[in-house]
Specification:
With 475 residues, this protein is α+β, with helices and mostly antiparallel strands. 29% of the residues lie in helices and 20% in strands. It has 15 helices and 19 strands.
């Protein structure tokens, strides 16, 4: 049975197949059709809903999510708000009123998702007592996952600036629900401990593992493949922690990108900056670092960084736990060393030492909320003599898996950076990679783009900012 609060009212439902999306639940079971399907892949934001959970102090916090790729069962125990739940009687919510006042809706198809993204922004700002209008960067970040095909962005920005000045909305935050007993009759299993998870892996060897579901659910929504059994990792207590050790951090498989923000901002600035371009806020509130590795996509944004860092991975399962280096994790296109009954338990991020530098850039057709055509990460130490040591370079989008550029590393190791060394390193890319032509980029573009990113990294290491190619956009 699925139990949740929907637009301020407790609801209980049963007989919901494991693969059911939140969008299907809203439109088919609740008959609330304000939430739209645009892309069915989490890209356009037309299906954005607000999901509320309580913090330790009992305060309700909302984040936006793409209902089209969100498993309905992950709404268990949550407060769900859609565009139908914002107005009270004849009174519009401040976000809705601001959109009306500033003509923020044109065709209206994308408008419900935009309104819900702004609702989450408005709710958090009012919670923190911010009574000034959000700046452009804040607005752009909040709406980075919402596309308006009528090009109504100026009016929407105006509405976002104006919504704070309107009276506080009527709140349903005091409404709560009693949690229902967990059910496993629908093929969706939500273990709450590592022990339960391993038991379920033994009992259901064909079940697929899901955390954020931002990649896996596309098999159902786009490829129309059935997902009859799913084991959800997002509620396993042992997988939701970040554990600090002397030389680094263990990141549990249930930790979302959003929860990683503070750690990356403080210790891995390049990784943090890249994270701002990895999907949208809707995606980053649901997706996990472990999921980006386990799906073994050749265009995942985080594997090149983890390869450059030399991360370690802890694998667990019915035969016990083991550790592998990330260099040995990928075995081919969409394949890893994980075997039946195993799951990726945690990722170890080594702490950067004094003098060690990490740089990362990506190229994509659109700056925000877009998949990489090429991704490059470099980690190295520059000695007192100006020579590079312990060089690790990795690329995504250049082969069937993300992988290290070992010929490039060899061309840079022990060298003082100059034009000749840089030229040799860029030429070595063709020895490491033979990329394909596809809809995102041609082979030649990928090689040229990777060379440009490598040149940018090398120029950054030597502080030659004036020589950075201006045709490449820095992450």
């Amino acid at each position: 049975m699925l139990t949740l609060t929907f637009n301020g009212h407790p609801r209980q439902l049963d007989n919901i197949p494991a693969q059911t999306t939140a969008l299907a639940l809203l439109r088919d079971r609740f008959a609330t059709c304000g939430t739209k399907e645009g892309c069915a892949s989490g890209d356009c934001g037309a299906c954005t809903i607000a999901i509320g959970t309580r913090d330790d102090a009992g305060h309700l916090h909302y984040h936006g999510a793409n209902a089209c790729i969100l498993p309905a069962h992950q709404l268990q125990g949550c407060h769900v708000v859609t565009v139908e739940g914002l107005a009270h009687g004849d009174g519009l919510h401040p976000v809705q009123q601001a959109m009306v006042d500033h003509h923020g809706s044109q065709c209206g198809f994308c408008t419900p998702g935009i309104v819900m993204s702004l609702f989450c922004l408005d709710h958090e700002r009012r919670h923190h007592g911010l009574d000034s209008p959000p700046d452009d960067d804040t607005i752009d970040a909040a709406l980075g996952g919402n596309l308006c095909r009528c090009t109504g962005y100026r009016a929407i920005r105006d509405a976002a600036r104006a919504m704070h000045a309107l009276p506080s909305p009527v709140s349903d935050d005091t409404v709560d629900i009693a949690p229902a007993a967990r059910s496993t009759t629908d093929g969706f299993y939500r273990p709450e401990s590592r022990r339960e998870l391993i038991t379920l892996l033994s009992q259901h060897p064909q079940a697929r593992l899901i955390a954020g579901g931002t990649d896996l659910m596309l098999e159902h929504t786009l490829a129309l493949k059935p997902l009859p059994e799913l084991i959800d990792l997002s509620s396993v207590a042992e997988l939701k922690h970040i554990k600090e050790e002397k030389s680094g951090w263990w990141i549990g498989a249930g930790v979302t990108y959003h929860q990683l923000t503070s750690l990356l901002a403080e210790h891995y600035p390049a990784f943090h900056t890249l994270l701002e371009r990895l999907g949208s806020q809707q995606i980053r509130h649901r997706a996990t670092l472990a999921g980006n590795l386990a799906n073994a996509s050749p265009i995942g944004d985080t594997p090149p960084i983890l390869l450059a860092l030399g991360a370690r991975l802890r694998i667990n399962g019915i035969r016990g736990a083991r550790e592998v280096f990330i260099d040995d994790f990928f075995t081919g296109y969409r394949r890893t060393v994980l075997t039946e009954g195993e799951y990726l338990d945690a990722i170890y991020l080594p702490r950067l030492r004094n003098g060690e530098q990490l740089l990362a850039w990506k190229l994509s057709k659109r700056r925000d909320d877009d998949i990489s055509a090429v991704m490059l990460a470099l980690r190295t130490v520059i000695g007192e003599d100006g020579r590079l040591h312990e060089v690790r370079v990795a690329c995504g989008g250049m082969a069937e898996t993300s992988q290290r550029a070992r010929h490039v590393e060899a061309a840079l190791e022990g060298q003082v950076l100059d034009d000749e060394v840089l030229n040799d390193a860029c030429n070595a890319l063709a020895e490491d990679f033979s990329p394909i032509d596809d809809v995102r980029a041609s082979r030649d573009y990928r090689l040229a783009g990777a060379a440009g990113l490598l040149a940018r990294a090398c120029h950054r290491l030597t502080s030659r900012h004036d020589a950075i190619p201006m045709t490449l956009e820095e992450v």
